[in-house]
Amino acid sequence: MPDSTNILALSDWLNVRPEWLEYGRGAKNKNIDGTLLNEASYAYCADAVSSVDDEVEIPYYKSIELAAGYGSYANQTETDFCRTLKFSRSILNNYGILPSEAMSFPVHGDSMSPVIPGGAVVTISTGHKKIVDGAIYAIKQADLLKVKILHRLPNSKVIIKSYNSIDYPDEEANLDDIKIIGRVFNWSVMGW
Q1: Structural domains of the chain, ranges and CATH numbers in brackets
Q2: What is the tens place of the pLDDT at every residue in 58-87?
Q3: pTM value?
Q4: Per DSSP, what are the bridge partners of residue 83?
């Protein structure tokens, strides 16, 4: 498939709109005033197609906090959610994430700062529990819920890491002593 630079050049030469040329969508011809849209007048991205039909709602469990610290007690129920977050179905599909296996939670604590600061929202896939070294997971250790980086070790052991390793040193644990809830595939941080 041609890249966006080639599409733009070809559409300019053919005097048609790049979206029409690449996807067959929208008007074939130039703007109403007779000029062709130039590269600076729009943001061109081959994957930026979105529609209401492409959105899925993921449950957001506001009262279940995943600790980016030493842990948060898991005493809430899974039905305790108050809203949903919208995600693109096609993006989830690209990553092999089933919408029915995705859920979001708030994070508190600073062990995953600066990457995932306290107050961030993480979204996990419960269908992705196999450890990929260096990936971020929501885990349950004893009765505590945590967001941590995992690395496998021999003899069914795992290293539980934090980005803020100065205040939260690495921990070695038996794989049988933790439950992987799911892999974190998205986090969102608000600026105030």
Answers
A1: 4-41 (no CATH), 52-188 (2.10.109.10)
A2: 999 887 766 555 444 444 444 455 688 999
A3: 0.67
A4: 60
